[in-house]
C-alpha cells in the first residue's frame, strides 16, 4: 500500500524544498527533523497530506503533529487524555467522514493504518514519547478502490478541519490524472481539485 506514497515525497522533493525555503513561520523550538521520509519541520497547526490517484486506486497519507489532532503530545496521563486519544483514533478510523469523496466515485476503503506512540498500549506509550524534543506525530494511511474514479474530481476537507480545529493548514502533495501538484488547504479553502 505504501509504495506509491513513500515514493511521493521523493518525486516532489523539489517542491518540498522550495516550500520549506519560502516558509517564514518559525516554530518555538526552531528545529527540523526527518521522520517517515518527511522533510518538513514539526510545526504545530500544520500537517502534510499526500494524495495519489492511480487508475481506480486512491491513497491518502496524513502526517501531523499530535498537537493538531489531540491538543497535546504527551502520553495520556489521565482519563480525559485517554478519552481524547480514543476519540481521535475513532475519527481517524473513519476517513470517509474526514475526507469527503464524491459519492459518484464509489470509493470503498480497502485498508487503513494508524501510527503514533500515543496509540500504543500504556507501557509502550510511557517509553516512547516522540522525538528528542518531546514531540509526537500521528500518521494515518488509507487505501481506497474507486469503482468510478473518473468522477473523483475533488476531495473536500472541511469536515477534517472541523473535527481537528488545531490543524490550521494542510500542505498537500497530489499525484493524479493531471500530474503532480502542490496545494495548501485551510479551513476557508478546504477543497482539493484533482
Average pLDDT for all residues:
80
Strand order of the largest sheet: 3-4-2-1-6-7
Shape: globular
* Rg measurement, Å: 16 Å
Low-pLDDT regions: 8-39, 121-132
Could you tell me the number of beta strands?
A: 8
Tally of distinct domains = 1
Helicity, as a percent range: 25-40%
> Beta fraction of the residues?
25-35%
Number of helices: 7
Please identify the structural class as seen in this structure: alpha+beta
Q: Order of SSEs, N→C?
A: HHEEHHHEHEEHEEE
Biggest beta-sheet profile: 6 strands, mixed
Spatial gap, N to C terminus: 20 Å
Structure, briefly:
The protein is of the alpha+beta class and 194 residues long. It contains 7 helices and 8 strands; from the N terminus they run ααββαααβαββαβββ. 28% of the residues lie in helices and 30% in strands.
Amino acid at each position: 500500500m505504501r509504495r506509491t506514497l513513500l515514493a511521493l515525497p521523493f518525486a516532489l522533493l523539489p517542491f518540498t524544498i522550495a516550500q520549506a525555503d519560502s516558509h517564514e513561520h518559525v516554530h518555538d523550538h526552531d528545529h527540523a527533523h526527518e521522520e517517515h521520509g518527511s522533510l518538513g519541520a514539526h510545526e504545530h497547526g500544520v500537517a502534510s497530506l499526500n494524495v495519489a490517484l492511480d487508475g481506480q486506486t486512491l491513497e491518502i497519507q496524513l502526517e501531523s503533529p499530535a498537537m493538531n489532532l489531540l491538543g497535546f503530545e504527551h502520553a495520556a496521563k489521565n482519563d480525559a487524555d485517554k478519552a481524547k486519544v480514543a476519540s481521535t483514533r475513532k475519527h481517524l478510523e473513519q476517513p470517509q467522514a474526514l475526507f469527503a469523496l464524491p459519492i459518484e466515485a464509489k470509493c470503498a476503503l480497502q485498508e487503513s493504518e494508524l501510527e503514533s506512540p500515543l496509540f500504543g498500549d500504556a507501557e509502550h506509550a510511557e517509553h516512547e514519547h516522540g522525538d528528542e524534543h518531546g514531540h509526537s506525530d500521528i500518521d494515518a494511511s488509507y487505501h481506497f478502490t474507486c469503482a468510478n474514479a473518473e468522477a473523483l474530481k475533488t476531495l473536500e476537507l472541511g469536515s477534517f478541519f472541523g473535527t481537528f480545529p488545531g490543524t490550521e493548514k494542510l500542505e498537500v502533495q497530489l499525484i493524479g490524472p493531471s500530474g503532480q501538484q502542490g496545494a495548501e488547504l485551510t479551513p476557508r479553502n478546504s477543497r482539493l481539485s484533482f
